[in-house]
């Protein structure tokens, strides 16, 4: 019991992790307020979270804003593309009834497209946080990984939905740590996938965390 409250004991260890998760969630929330920057903030979120899985903790706030700055323009472009495509798919679903003779066919294609947009979105920001790619290559890679590793994809999707439902139906206060918890847990799954294609992903320079994949 005495060792429980030592500086290197479980109380301080897990308390520090929880504090980091809350800080990370708050940073993401504040930086996502303009909405257009939500993709950039999400990339920064995963920059910090995946760094933790590589045992390269560093300073959360400094790392978050470092990634925010590095990935600002590409993150903005990716966010806009996803928003436009997502809106187009939503509009197609919404107005599919206007073509009654092909309603079921169009709706089926729309739901498939909607699913693809969702799973690409799951992967694209963690990818951007770890690899330096052209935007077209980023989308292709996210599409490939999301469909190739469907078990991980579905697991991350279920995890995200479960955490959001907990916020809505159990206690809204849980939201202060929700996004951070999702990023930490899902980062272990994403990194397991990334390691299959980049075996030295965990041995990069701690001061240059972005990996050039050109």
- Give the beta-strand count: 2
**Mean pLDDT score, rounded?**
87
The amount of helix comes to over 70%
Number of domains: 1
Could you give the order of the helices and strands?
A: HHHHHEHHHE
Q: Tell me, what's the shape?
A: globular
| Cα Rg | 19 Å
Q: Which class of secondary structure composition applies to the elements?
A: mainly alpha
Mind summarizing the main beta sheet?
2 strands, parallel
Number of helices: 8
* Distance separating the two termini: 52 Å
Strand order of the largest sheet: 1-2
Unreliable stretches covering 5 or more consecutive residues:
1-5, 205-214
Share of residues in strands: under 5%
Structure report:
The chain is mostly helical and 214 residues long. It has one domain (10-199). The chain has eight helices and two strands, in the order αααααβαααβ. The chain has helices at residues 10-32, 38-53, 60-70, 72-94, 103-130, 135-148, 150-169, 175-194; strands at 131-132, 211-212. Helix 2 (38-53) crosses helix 8 and helix 4 packs antiparallel against helix 5 (103-130). It is globular, with a radius of gyration of 19 Å. The termini are far apart.
Short descriptors:
8 helices; two-stranded parallel ribbon; disordered N terminus; disordered C terminus; 214 residues; mainly alpha
């Amino acid at each position: 019991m005495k060792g429980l409250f030592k500086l290197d004991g479980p109380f301080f260890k897990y308390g520090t992790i929880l504090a980091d998760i809350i800080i990370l969630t708050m940073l993401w929330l504040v930086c996502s307020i303009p909405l257009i920057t939500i993709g950039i903030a999400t990339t920064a979120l995963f920059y910090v979270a995946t760094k933790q899985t590589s045992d390269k903790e560093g300073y959360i706030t400094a790392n978050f804003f470092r990634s925010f700055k590095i990935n600002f323009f590409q993150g903005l472009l990716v966010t806009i593309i996803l928003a436009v495509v997502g809106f187009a798919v939503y509009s197609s679903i919404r107005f599919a009834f206007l073509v009654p003779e092909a309603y079921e066919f169009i709706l089926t294609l729309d739901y498939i497209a909607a699913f693809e947009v969702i799973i690409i979105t799951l992967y694209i920001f963690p990818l951007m946080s770890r690899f330096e790619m052209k935007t077209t290559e980023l989308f292709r890679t996210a599409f490939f990984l999301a469909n190739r590793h469907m078990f991980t994809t579905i697991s991350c999707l279920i995890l995200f939905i479960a955490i959001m439902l907990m916020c809505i139906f159990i206690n809204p206060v849980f939201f202060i740590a929700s996004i951070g918890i999702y990023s930490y847990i899902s980062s272990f799954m994403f990194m397991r996938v990334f390691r299959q294609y980049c075996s030295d992903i965990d041995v990069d320079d701690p001061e240059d965390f972005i990996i050039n994949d050109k």
